[in-house]
Design goal:
The protein is 37% helix and 15% strand. By secondary structure, the chain is α/β, with parallel strands linked by helices. The chain has a domain at 90-116 and 221-399: Rossmann fold (3-Layer(aba) Sandwich), CATH 3.40.50. The strands form three sheets. Strands 4-5-13-10-11-12 form a six-stranded mixed beta sheet, sandwiched between helices. α4 runs parallel beside α5, α10 crosses α12 (318-327) and α13 packs across α14. The longest helix is centred in the middle third of the chain and has 15 residues, at 251-265. It binds pyridoxal-5'-phosphate and zinc ion. Residues 9, 11, 13, 15, 26, 28-29, 31 line the site of zinc ion (ZN). Zinc ion (ZN) binds at residues 9, 11, 13, 15, 26, 28-29, 31.
């Protein structure tokens, strides 16, 4: 079977470009581009056969490339740059579900990945395309709140392609900063915020020999949309009622939405889940817009937040996110600093190890369940976007009581004790009565 995909203007002006072209916006109207697939060709294979095919590839090294036909069908397989992305666990917690008052709660652990965040899913696609058109490209560049730069630098290093990353100074974690440094990227630490870095990288990549790796480049979305396929596959082809996604630049919620819509087109599912975008109160342009029925889509200046990976005031994929939310009868809710920190720490007590962005998604889930906007009978999937180990400073600050308005009963500090067995027994008996 022959499959085909291309860039097409998202604003609907009809302009198309080949995927090998170095183009990030519609050359006619300046709007965003999206990757479109020849759906007629995709639908020629019956749904039952697609399911069987995808299930038969479940154990493959890459969750993204095991769905190559609906990601980048025409890429030469020899050019794939993979670091074993995707196939991340979907963990059900009956105990945490009971605690928050919902029937079924799952956490999709997208941070269980090579560089510790879901950005790997999009980057394998983008860097593989760069690898295919490599002769015209000097380097790959991105602005980042930390995780994109880690993914760019790792995948480029794997392929032997130079990378350049622009990070807002003092707004990324140590783990995030050391990743591009270790992978040999040209790493700029700039005295501005993410939105400022984004402006710089757009200038730098006007030179077409420097390829833009931000999610404005819609190749990323193609990899990330496999998250939706994996969730449904892991639920034995059943659809969850709600999928909660922390949103910053809004590429991921757009990708997850487009994954579900494509699955319905393919006949793999017969209904869509309701998407929930979770934003921090400090960087909530989508929430503000949602409250007004999406009539206006305006940037804000993002305030300082613990959830640094979503500290974005001018999201590139604003209009794509609105489309995904409209298509799925979606909801946008926000969480305060205290709420996100408490939610992360509370879920940690059920065996998770949450980063602050996942904390936002968990806090929003808890709020919506409490308000009955998510009915108690629901099956809910929370997208965990990064590994908690990338945000150790956040977790240390929580337990040291350095974050205001949190539940201090969740704080847990090491007990300093002399090397004396009786003293240690006394501590244990004090904490766990015999
Ligand atoms: C990038 C990122 C997000 C936000 O994803 P967008 O596509 O920018 O909305 C959320 N959490 C983490 C950990 C991230 O790295
Ligand atoms: Zn256009």
């Amino acid at each position: 079977m022959k499959f085909h995909a291309w860039f097409e203007c998202f604003s609907g002006c009809g302009v198309r470009h080949d995927l090998e072209q170095i183009v990030y916006r519609c050359e006619s109207c300046g709007g965003l581009l999206e990757v479109r697939h020849d759906l007629a060709a995709v639908k020629r294979r019956p749904a039952a056969e697609w399911k069987q095919l995808f299930d038969s590839r479940m154990g493959r090294a890459s969750g993204v490339w095991s769905k190559k036909e609906i990601v980048l069908p025409e890429l030469d397989a020899g050019n794939i740059v993979s670091l074993g992305e995707g196939n991340s666990p979907l963990i059900q917690s009956e105990r945490f579900a009971e605690r928050i008052g919902v029937d079924e709660l799952y956490v999709k652990q997208c941070g269980t990945s090579h560089t510790g965040s879901f950005k790997d899913l999009g980057m394998t696609v983008l860097v593989s395309m760069v690898n295919e058109i490599r002769s015209s490209i000097r380097a790959v560049a991105c602005a980042s709140t930390g995780d994109t730069s880690a993914a760019v630098s790792a995948y480029c290093a794997a392929a032997g392609i130079p990378s350049i990353v622009f990070l807002p100074k003092d707004k990324v974690s140590i783990a995030q900063l050391i990743q591009p440094i270790s992978n040999g990227a040209i790493t700029f630490s700039i005295d501005t915020d993410f939105d400022g870095c984004m402006k710089i990288v757009q200038e730098i990549t006007k030179d077409k020999s420097i390829y833009l790796a931000n999610s404005m480049n819609s190749l990323r979305v193609e990899g990330q949309k496999t998250i939706s396929f994996e969730i449904v596959q892991q639920l034995e082809w059943q659809v969850p009622d709600f999928v909660v996604v922390p949103g910053g630049n809004l590429g991921n919620i757009s990708a997850i939405g487009s994954g579900f819509v494509l699955m319905r087109e393919m006949g793999l599912i017969d209904r869509l889940p309701r998407l929930v975008c979770a934003q921090t109160e400090k960087a909530n342009p989508l929430y503000v817009s949602y409250r007004e029925g999406f009539r206006k889509q305006e940037p804000i200046v993002a305030g300082s937040t613990l959830a640094t990976a979503i500290q974005i005031g001018n999201p590139v994929s604003f209009s794509k996110a609105v489309k995904a939310l409209r298509a799925t009868d979606g909801v946008v809710e926000q969480a305060s600093e205290g709420e996100l920190a408490n939610a992360a720490a509370e879920a940690d007590r059920f065996g998770f190890f949450n980063d602050p962005q996942t904390g936002v998604a968990l806090a929003v889930t808890m709020k919506l369940v409490k308000a009955r906007s998510i009915p108690a009978s629901s099956r809910v999937v929370v997208i965990s976007t990064a590994h908690g180990l990338k945000f150790a400073e956040f977790k240390v600050r929580f337990h040291r009581g350095q974050i205001p308005s949190v539940d201090s009963s969740l704080q847990n500090l090491p007990t300093n004790v002399a090397p004396d067995v009786n003293a240690i027994r006394a501590v244990i008996d004090g904490r766990i009565p015999a």
